[in-house]
Every structure is written in structure tokens, then in C-alpha cells.
């Protein structure tokens, strides 16, 4: 039955099950069975397969938002600079149009609004559209009430300007909420954005990584048709290579993960079969060592650019410079595309910073690319065990034993 539900989720929202992990889907199924008072998996499958309401509830249980205000702050600096230039070109002929999807509980589209207001844009000079498949998180966005987990990073001065403190958190002011049009929609529905005028800026970050390659290209085909000539596309660090493959040019500003159409770019043609390049394998720390590498690595031959970048990340982590190491990982993903090792290090560094949910997501991304990646399995098992999921930890440890039965770490060179 699990495999049937996985196929259903792929059909409904394009979700590739391995990108989130089977445990997430199994937990969602258990939650929905309990909520419906159903004890047999076969009965639940019959129920969910015939009920669009239950299908939406299952999607809600699977989709777990992980976001915060001004995530990737460099991208918002770039947005303001580009928006000012775009405004000058338009000469007041129309408002700027911006799209955020998936918008989750609203932190991203509201960050866009705050950035533009801070830059002096009049409220009527722009409009932000925001789309998400989850009605539950959209209701949270409409309420605009946030706890401390939504406020991360060093510069939180925006909180004083745009939020009112309450007994249970922070209430976003109406002047920000009113500039965002929230709606529920599924990108797998070809009509969901049909009839929309083109957008000047599209934010679609950390969504494509959950799709298989054909679905990624299908979604990008639709979104690129919605982008104005001269418009800008913002993605997550792991998705940057997809835009490069489609003939788009990255902005030269580091850590923005922003792309524009290249002049005279050739039409993109998806290859008949995409074969991922073999991942670059740097020396990794022992699984027993949570952050620090065991010893400096002296390569036998000069490293290529990608390997050198990963070696610098290892060196920064070994020296205790976690923030710089994380930035190095994000820069690596932007320049070189998805990488088992970059995802693993992002998981490890977030794990050490106490960001367990974020770390778990990156470990799973590493395992999506390489299912038997021993270090990611070990650390994810430890994280699950610490959170009380001993069954999940045990299953991961069994995978470790199968991948490395002698206990010798693989491919450490």
C-alpha cells in the first residue's frame, strides 16, 4: 500500500518519494488513518483513492514547511536592486508583478513585501502573488501570526518595523499582508496559473528538488512562460544547475541563486535520458566525529575546481567556522549543482547548530542522490534516535550495516 500512496502523491503533486524519505510518507499515512478511524492499510487505500478531500488531507500531512523570514538574505538585496531598475524602465506604466511559490506559511512573500517597502516602493507600485498546495499553511499565512522559529539570522530589525508583539508571538501588520494575494493551487494542474499576466520576478525555491527530472522540466517550462523578458527567476541552491541547463544566466552576485534569460539563448531541449555526473567525493569526517575532520588532506594530484571548493568547506568546518562553511556549501551548489557531499555537510553543520529539522532535510537530500551514503545514514539515524524515533533509527542503522558490513568507511580517499 505504501508504494501505491507514493504513486498517488507523485500524480497529485509531483512528489518523488525518495526526496522526502519513505518514513515521512509512512508517518503521514498513520496520521490520516488515525484521524479517519481506519485500522487496515487496505481500507485506507480504498478510502484515499476515492476521496479528493482525503487526498488533500494526505498532502497536508506530507507537506511540512521549513521556512523563515529573509531566508537567503542576499537574494532580497538583489531583488531590491533589480526592482529599482525595472521600475525605472516601466516609468509607472504598471505595478511590478512578483510570484512566490510554494509560499508555505507566508514568510517568503511577506519578506519580499518588507524588502520593497524598506527600499521606498509605494504599496501600490507592486503586487505579490503567492501560491501553495496546502490550504493549512495558507491559513497560517493569512493569519500572519508567527513564533520565534520564523525569525532567524543576525539582522532582525525588520521585526520592529513590521510586527507587533503579542503574548504568543508576533503579529504581522496589515500593510504587509495586504500586498500579498494568497491562493491555494497545485502546479501539477496546468490551469492553476493560466491566464496570468507575466511576472517580473518569480521565487520558486526548494521545490524542484522534490520532483523527478521530467517533472522539473515540465514545471520550469510553465514558469518560464510566465516570466517577463528581462525578468528574474530565484531558486534554491540545489536547483541552480537546472536553470543553467536551460540557457539562463546566473547573476554574478554570490548566494543570490537568481537567473535571467541569456541573450539569444538557444531553445532548451530536454535530453532523452539524463545521466547524473558522478559526485565528487572529498575526505569526510568519521561518523563518530560530528563536525571536525580527522586530519588535513594532502591531495596526490591538483584538485579540480569542484573538489577544491569541497576541500575548503571541510577546512572551514574543521576550523570551527560553521557559518562560512555553510556559505561555501550554498556557493558550491550554485556553481556545481546538486552534490551528495554538499548536502551532507549542510546537514552536519545545521545538526551541530541545533537545527534538527533543517539537518534532517539535508541528510535526506544526500540520501536521495546516494541511498547508501554511510555518513548521512549514521547521522540521520542518530538524529532520529535523539528525537525518540527508535524504529526509524534502527532501520537506518540496518542500511548502514548493509552498505558497510565490515564497519570500514567507504570511499574515503
From TrEMBL:
The keyword Transferase applies. Residues 394-413 are annotated as: Disordered. SUPFAM superfamilies: S-adenosyl-L-methionine-dependent methyltransferases (SSF53335), TPR-like (SSF48452). Keywords: Methyltransferase, S-adenosyl-L-methionine, TPR repeat, Transferase. Residues 1-240 form the CheR-type methyltransferase domain. CDD domains: AdoMet_MTases. InterPro entries: Bact_Chemotaxis_MeTrfase, CheR_C, CheR_MeTrfase, SAM-dependent_MTases_sf, TPR-like_helical_dom_sf, TPR_rpt. Pfam families: CheR. TPR repeats lie at residues 340-373. Gene3D superfamilies: Tetratricopeptide repeat domain, Vaccinia Virus protein VP39. It comes from the Bacteria. PANTHER family: CHEMOTAXIS PROTEIN METHYLTRANSFERASE (PTHR24422:SF19). This is Protein-glutamate O-methyltransferase CheR.
Amino acid at each position: 500500500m505504501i508504494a501505491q500512496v507514493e504513486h498517488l502523491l507523485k500524480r497529485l503533486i509531483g512528489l518523488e518519494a525518495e526526496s522526502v524519505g519513505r518514513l515521512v510518507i509512512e508517518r503521514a499515512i498513520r496520521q490520516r488513518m488515525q484521524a479517519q478511524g481506519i485500522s487496515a492499510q487496505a481500507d485506507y487505500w480504498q478510502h484515499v483513492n476515492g476521496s479528493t478531500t482525503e487526498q488533500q488531507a494526505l498532502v497536508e500531512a506530507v507537506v511540512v514547511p521549513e521556512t523563515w523570514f529573509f531566508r537567503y538574505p542576499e537574494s532580497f538585496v538583489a531583488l531590491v536592486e533589480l526592482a529599482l531598475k525595472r521600475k525605472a524602465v516601466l516609468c509607472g506604466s504598471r505595478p511590478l508583478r512578483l510570484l512566490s511559490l510554494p509560499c508555505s506559511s507566508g514568510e517568503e512573500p511577506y519578506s519580499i513585501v518588507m524588502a520593497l517597502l524598506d527600499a521606498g516602493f509605494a504599496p501600490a507600485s507592486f503586487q505579490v502573488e503567492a501560491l501553495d498546495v496546502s490550504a493549512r499553511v495558507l491559513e497560517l499565512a493569512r493569519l500572519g501570526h508567527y513564533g520565534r522559529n520564523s525569525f532567524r539570522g543576525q539582522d532582525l530589525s525588520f521585526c520592529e518595523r513590521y510586527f507587533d508583539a503579542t503574548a504568543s508571538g508576533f503579529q504581522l501588520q496589515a500593510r504587509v499582508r495586504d500586498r500579498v494575494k494568497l491562493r491555494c493551487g497545485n502546479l501539477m494542474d496546468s490551469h492553476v496559473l493560466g491566464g496570468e499576466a507575466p511576472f517580473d520576478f518569480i521565487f520558486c525555491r526548494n521545490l524542484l528538488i522534490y520532483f523527478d527530472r521530467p517533472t522539473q522540466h515540465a514545471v520550469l517550462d510553465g514558469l518560464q512562460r510566465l516570466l517577463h523578458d528581462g525578468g528574474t527567476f530565484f531558486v534554491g541552491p540545489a536547483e541552480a544547475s537546472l536553470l543553467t541547463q536551460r540557457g539562463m544566466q546566473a547573476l554574478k552576485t554570490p548566494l543570490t541563486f537568481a537567473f535571467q534569460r541569456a541573450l539569444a539563448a538557444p531553445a532548451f531541449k530536454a535530453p532523452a535520458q539524463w545521466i547524473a555526473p558522478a559526485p565528487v567525493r572529498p575526505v569526510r569526517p568519521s561518523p563518530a566525529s560530528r563536525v571536525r575532520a580527522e586530519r588535513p588532506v594532502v591531495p596526490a594530484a591538483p584538485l579540480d575546481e569542484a573538489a577544491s571548493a569541497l576541500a575548503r568547506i571541510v577546512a572551514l568546518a574543521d576550523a570551527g567556522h560553521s557559518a562560512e562553511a555553510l556559505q561555501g556549501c550554498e556557493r558550491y551548489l550554485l556553481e556545481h549543482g546538486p552534490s551528495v557531499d554538499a548536502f551532507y555537510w549542510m546537514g552536519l553543520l545545521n545538526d551541530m547548530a541545533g537545527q534538527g529539522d533543517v539537518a534532517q532535510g539535508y541528510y535526506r537530500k544526500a540520501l536521495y542522490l546516494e541511498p547508501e551514503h554511510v555518513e548521512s545514514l549514521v547521522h540521520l539515524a542518530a538524529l532520529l534516535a535523539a528525537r525518540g524515533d527508535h524504529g526509524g533509527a534502527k532501520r537506518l542503522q540496518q542500511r548502514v550495516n548493509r552498505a558497510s558490513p565490515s564497519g570500514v568507511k567507504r570511499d574515503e580517499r
